[in-house]
Specification:
34% helix; globular; alpha+beta; 151 residues
Length: 151
């Protein structure tokens, strides 16, 4: 398991190659890349600044991946989340999961991303034509995470 919070961009091909490390048991790799949009809630976004709480953020993401590994047959997982000031089209987040089978890889990747959006301590501020604003949590993100709750 690898968790990185960083300002630098990432190269998905290099990250996946490192995660695979010539492991012939891997039969599936699922990934998600989140990027900065130029429009949010009807307003143009010139840039987004992401902040986090060092140490706490990495631990939170590690806990999310550990939970995913407890639910699905995951061989390895990677989560990279960028912080700092980003522009539209910049990559924000990368989640990659390896498994023997696609069902486990897809489910674990989606779970990790849903929980990253709702449980990891990141704060986003957008610069719009109306001025800066903090991005509030979305009901849709909460609903996506809620479906994973064990009942």
């Amino acid at each position: 398991m690898t968790v990185r919070v960083q300002m630098e961009d990432f190269d998905i091909s290099r990250e996946i190659a490192q995660l695979r490390r010539d492991n012939p048991r891997i039969g599936a790799i699922a990934s998600f890349i989140g990027v900065v949009r130029d429009l949010n809630d009807g307003d143009s976004v010139a840039e987004m600044t992401l902040e986090h709480y060092p140490g706490m953020t990495e631990k939170s993401v590690e806990d999310i991946i550990t939970e995913a590994r407890g639910r699905w047959q995951v061989m390895d997982a990677l989560a990279i989340h960028r912080v700092g000031t980003l522009k539209p089209l910049d990559q924000i987040v990368l989640v990659v999961v390896t498994s023997a089978h696609r069902g486990d890889a897809f489910a674990a990747c989606e779970f990790i991303m849903d929980y990253l959006k709702t449980r990891a301590p990141f704060w986003k501020k957008e610069q719009t034509q109306k001025g800066p604003r903090w991005v509030d949590a979305r009901a849709a993100d909460d609903a996506a995470a809620e479906r994973w709750q064990v009942k």
